[in-house]
Design goal:
Keywords: Membrane, Transmembrane, Transmembrane helix. It is found in: Membrane. It is a multi-pass membrane protein. Its main location: membrane. The chain is mostly helical and about 350 residues long. About 70% of the residues lie in helices and about 0% in strands.
Length: about 350
């Protein structure tokens, strides 16, 4: 088996876990708002979602050690398709024509990505990472990212501009740093396991590891803020497009993954990205509304608890209807976390 195929398999499994995790977290945010209970982070169900996300990200982390970043990152569309399947199977949503078309486009795009993306990349070593960090193209790219991040953070925090594009761009800029560091750390660990020169003795390994952990933590922070403010139907496609674009650019500029790739391969890779983007938007847009009361009643029956009227607001309440409509892309975990 080619080593990049192993990376693809690991990445797909990781993205499936991440899809389940994001649905659990969004469900917890909405349910906690409906019931007016404690903050979401006091919920065991939310922490189960975080645990699954950790496992999924661990799978993606390992995948970056076996395949180029520009090949692994676009496979995130698997999590979007999985979310649609979860909604249909567990929440009994209607399977729409746009879901089927979006799934076909996403899978077609994934096939093109896997086929025409770079299948090989230079072995990641400490010396290579140090050399790439001081390259002219990366320094220009990194400086531009820092400036843009500071401007967006100022607009978001100081000017109180809570637009979804601003929040998701913050996540994407952090994701770009995360991809670079994850690829570096995973690659150096992989090289060490393969029996090459021990890479863990170099200070650059620990520097990249610390940056990776910090960027991941802030990604989770901003992503959870976005999930509290916006619908999952908006978050999922925008996050996928922004993350994929930032990861591919990072792979090209830092690891030079497209070096020597033919023009036809580049064109087909871009086409695969566009098909995957289109499929994700078709799947995520205008998901059917799900009534929160029916989900909570169902959970109450399963857990053996009776559902009372004072557990939730009346369905005719405007606030309740607005919150209930935000369950469009979420899976229902049919177990009580209290």
């Amino acid at each position: 088996m080619e080593i990049y195929i192993l990376g693809i398999i690991i990445s797909i499994c990781g993205n499936l876990l991440i899809s389940i995790s994001l649905n659990i977290q969004k469900y917890t945010h909405t349910r906690q708002s409906q019931l007016g209970t404690k903050p979401y982070y006091t919920s065991r169900l939310w922490w189960y979602g975080i645990l699954l996300m950790g496992l999924g990200e661990l799978g993606n982390f390992a995948a970056y050690g076996f395949a180029p970043a520009s090949l692994i990152a676009p496979l995130g569309c698997v999590s979007v398709v999985a979310s649609a399947v979860i909604s249909v199977v567990f929440l009994k949503e209607i399977l729409r024509a746009s879901d089927v078309l979006g799934g076909i486009l996403a899978l077609t795009g994934t096939y093109l990505l896997v086929t025409f993306a770079p299948h090989s990349a230079p072995h990641v070593t400490a010396n290579m990472v140090e050399r790439c960090l001081i390259s002219v193209q990366f320094l220009i790219y990194f400086f531009s990212e820092v400036v843009l991040f500071c401007v967006l953070l100022y607009l978001y925090k100081c000017r109180n501009m809570k637009h979804i594009v601003i929040v998701m761009l913050l996540v994407a800029l952090l994701a770009s740093v995360t991809v670079i560091t994850v690829k570096a750390v995973s690659g150096m660990i992989t090289e060490t396991i393969r029996g090459s020169h021990l890479q863990l003795t170099y200070p650059i390994f620990y520097i990249m590891f610390i940056i990776m952990m910090v960027s991941c933590a802030f990604q989770i922070k901003f992503l959870n803020e976005a999930m509290k403010m916006f619908d999952a139907t908006e978050i999922v496609p925008i996050n996928f497009v922004f993350f994929t674009a930032s990861a591919v650019i990072a792979g090209i500029l830092f690891y030079e993954e497209f070096y020597g790739l033919s023009l036809i391969h580049i064109i087909m890779f871009v086409l695969g990205c566009l098909l995957a983007f289109t499929g994700v938007f078709l799947i995520a847009r205008t998901r059917p509304k799900i009534k929160m009361d029916s989900v909570l009643i169902s959970m109450g029956k399963i857990s053996g608890k009776s559902s009372t009227a004072n557990m939730q607001p009346e369905s005719k309440d405007n606030k309740y209807g607005g919150l209930a409509s935000k369950l469009g892309c979420n899976s229902g975990m049919q177990q009580e976390d209290s």
